[in-house]
Amino acid sequence: SALGSRMKLILLVVLAFPIWCFATSLKEFAPIVTQSNDQTHYFINVPEKYHYEKDRKIIDRKASGKAYFIEADGTPKFLWETIGWYSPEVFMCGTGSSLIRITNWHKGNKASKEDLAIAFYINGVEIRKYSTADLLENDKSIEISAGGYQWRADKPRYPGCSYVSPGFFVRTTENRYIEFNFETGEITDKINP
Question: pTM here?
Answer without folding.
Answer: 0.81
